[in-house]
Specification:
The protein is 16% helix and 36% strand. It is built from 5 helices and 17 strands.
Length: 305
């Protein structure tokens, strides 16, 4: 009996309803279906009294979601996709992402396309696109205090108010650099269209084996986004702030003290997304962000060459 999964955002009534209906349809068609919410992929939020809220990377996978699962359907927005990718990445389960949120930059289909999408997926008529992920760790000495998988970005900043921080950052074996900024972002190509883009970083096409380091509001005309090979690990040391907070994929994180360091490297795991048509990143940029549209409005009565 083939096996499939469903991960849904239970805070959205429509996602909950569709998840139940889809489970019944797949079961009737002879599939063994495991269903869960995306809450299991949400990283715990820390607070000053509990600065580390840690679930190991391989501890987020829901029961029944294993390597024998042919695919999993994700019902939600981008946040649900990010959570689901952390839940299933250790087992390499392909994800069909269906938008029930707002922008849905990471989603493949809309709800009105779900019947056709399921027909394609159940017959194997699709491609799989792999997206690089990061392993993010907070270490004190050689002890791992906290770790997480990251599909978009890691952000390190001060709280509760935004103000100047100093970071010593070492990329690979290169000499460390000192950056004064409100915070720093380390982003994957997937995350280059998220917070990194808003902070002035470049768009990096998925598939490019690169990461980027983006200072947030740097106090220097010379501090700009840096793109470097994803074979280079990154170590970040807070310099002069009593406590920083780290956020991964806009979700959760932990506090980072001056005696800690943040270590990032490309993960051995990848997010695997089902594509119902050949991936076309520029089309997504046009549809979601308006990239490359004509900068001068042209009357519809004018015949263009």
């Amino acid at each position: 009996m083939p096996k499939a999964g469903i991960i849904y955002n239970d805070l959205k009534p429509i996602a909950t309803r569709i998840a139940i209906e889809l489970k019944d349809k797949l079961t009737a068609a002879g599939w063994n279906v495991c269903i869960t919410t995306s809450i299991g992929g949400i990283l715990g939020y820390s607070n000053p009294e509990s600065p580390v809220c840690h679930t190991p990377i391989d501890g987020l996978t829901p029961p029944g979601f294993e390597s024998d699962m042919e695919f999993a359907v994700v019902l939600g927005g981008d946040g649900t996709v990010l959570a689901a990718s952390r839940q299933v990445a250790p087992y390499g389960i392909p994800l069909l992402t269906v938008n029930t949120g707002h922008m849905g930059f990471l989603t493949e289909a809309y709800l009105n396309q779900l019947p056709q999408a399921m027909e394609q997926v159940m017959t194997g008529d699709y491609e799989i696109e792999e997206r690089a992920m990061l392993t993010v760790k907070v270490l004190r000495g050689e002890s791992v205090l906290w770790e997480a998988l990251c599909l978009n970005e890691m952000v390190l900043h001060r709280e509760p108010l935004t103000s100047m921080c100093h970071f010593e950052i070492a990329v690979g074996r290169h000499a460390p650099v000192d950056i004064a900024a409100d915070g720093v972002i380390v982003s994957t190509p997937t995350g280059s269209t998220a917070y990194s883009l808003s902070a002035g970083g470049p768009v990096v096409i998925p598939g490019v084996p690169a990461l980027q380091l983006v200072p947030i509001c740097p106090h220097s005309l010379a501090s700009r986004a840096l793109v470097f090979p994803d074979t280079e690990p990154v170590n970040i040391y807070p310099v002069n702030i009593p406590r920083l907070v780290m956020v991964v994929d806009g979700n959760g994180g932990c506090y980072v003290l001056p005696e800690d360091r943040v270590h990032l490297e490309r993960s051995q795991y990848s997010a695997r997304f089902i594509r119902l048509q050949p991936p076309e990143f520029f089309r997504i940029l046009r549809e979601k962000l308006g990239w490359g549209l004509p900068h001068i409005a042209k009357p519809t009565s004018v015949e263009l060459p």
